[in-house]
Amino acid sequence: MKKKGSKSDTQNHRNRAILKIFQDKKRDCKYESFFQICVAISKMPTHRYYISEAMGVSIWGRWRKTGEIPAAGKYKGRLYEAFIKECERIHKEEGGTPLAVVRAALECKAPCMGVSPFRIFVILKQMGQK
Question: Burial level of 109, CB count in 10 A (0-12/13-18/19+)?
Fold first, then answer.
């Protein structure tokens, strides 16, 4: 069980993915500053959705009940919209329980990390990057 103040496995996987992408981008030498790399990372598609199963069920369930996307910032909102569309597509094509639909949707490609460049900057600094 997650304790208050601890990070989830999903968040840890996301942060490691951000670090790996950062190191690849830094080697490319195409960016003039640390923050430009963070901006590029925030807009990049990812191989999966970095949302926990519980949050995924909550997001999609709320969407189905109210038609509203849970309050989120610009980057998370974009991620949530794409996630909901993916859930709806899977539900229409394959059906199944809400948890099965969410699990399938989480493994699909995501349009972005859902994290702002400023937050990516903080994550990388916490991981000792310069």
Answer: exposed
Query: What residues make up the domain containing 26?
Result: 9-44+113-130
Is the pTM here over 0.70, yes or no? Answer: yes
CB 42 within 8 A of CB 116: yes
Listed in sequence order, the residues at least 6 apart from 111 whose beta carbon sits closer than 8 Å to its beta carbon are 45, 78, 79, 82
Paired tokens of 33: 């500053």
CA atoms within 13 A on the CB side of 113: 26
* Per-residue pLDDT tens over the stretch 61-108: 999 999 888 877 889 999 999 999 999 999 999 888 899 999 999 999
Residue 110: strand pairing partners:
46
Give the separation between CA 26 and CA 34, rounded to whole angstroms: 8
Q: Does 73 share its domain with 106?
A: yes
